[in-house]
């Protein structure tokens, strides 16, 4: 299994939206008092801007470039990286790979 990095494709958008919105809403640092639906709608628009104007790096398998392991982009001046749970503790250094590609 070889991991490759590629740029964001249109087919990736739904995966990025779903994982980002779910993870950020339930993140302990999210202090919003907005209901999830309202918060998600506001973030969705902001995330849409990020995905059209910023660099988004996708980690995938070389045999199946549609199978996303994780992604990274700059969010409010800092790297935001998402790695699928089953690949976080495998010693693959995905976070470092993705963030290095952004900088």
- The general outline is globular
Under CATH, the topology can be stated as Aminopeptidase
For CATH, the homologous superfamily is named as Gcn5-related N-acetyltransferase (GNAT)
Sketch the major β-sheet: 4 strands, antiparallel
The DSSP helix count reads 4
- The residue-averaged pLDDT reads 89
Report the portion of residues in β strands. Answer: 15-25%
- CATH class category label: Alpha Beta
Backbone structural class? alpha+beta
Q: What is the string of helix and strand elements? A: EHHEEEHH
CATH architecture: 3-Layer(aba) Sandwich
Which percent bin holds the helix content? 40-55%
Write up what this structure looks like.
- The chain has a single domain, classed as Aminopeptidase, CATH 3.40.630.
- It contains four helices and four strands.
- The protein has helices at 13-25, 36-53, 85-88, 94-102, and strands at 3-7, 56-61, 68-75, 78-83.
- A four-stranded antiparallel β-sheet has the order 1-2-3-4, sandwiched between helices.
- A hairpin with a 6-residue loop joins strand 2 (56-61) and strand 3.
- The relative contact order is 0.20.
Give the gist of this structure.
By secondary structure, the protein is an alpha+beta fold.
List the helices and strands and how they pair.
Elements: E1 3-7, H1 13-25, H2 36-53, E2 56-61, E3 68-75, E4 78-83, H3 85-88, H4 94-102
Antiparallel strand pairs: 1-2, 2-3, 3-4
């Amino acid at each position: 299994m070889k991991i490759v990095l590629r740029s964001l494709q249109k087919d990736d958008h739904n995966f990025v939206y779903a994982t980002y919105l779910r993870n950020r809403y339930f993140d302990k640092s999210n202090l919003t008092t907005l209901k999830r639906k309202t918060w998600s709608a506001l973030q969705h628009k902001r995330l849409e801007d990020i995905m059209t104007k910023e660099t988004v790096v996708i980690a995938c398998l070389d045999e199946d470039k549609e199978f996303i392991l994780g992604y990274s982009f700059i969010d409010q001046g800092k790297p935001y990286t998402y790695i699928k749970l089953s690949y976080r503790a495998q010693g693959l250094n995905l976070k470092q790979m993705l963030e290095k590609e952004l900088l």
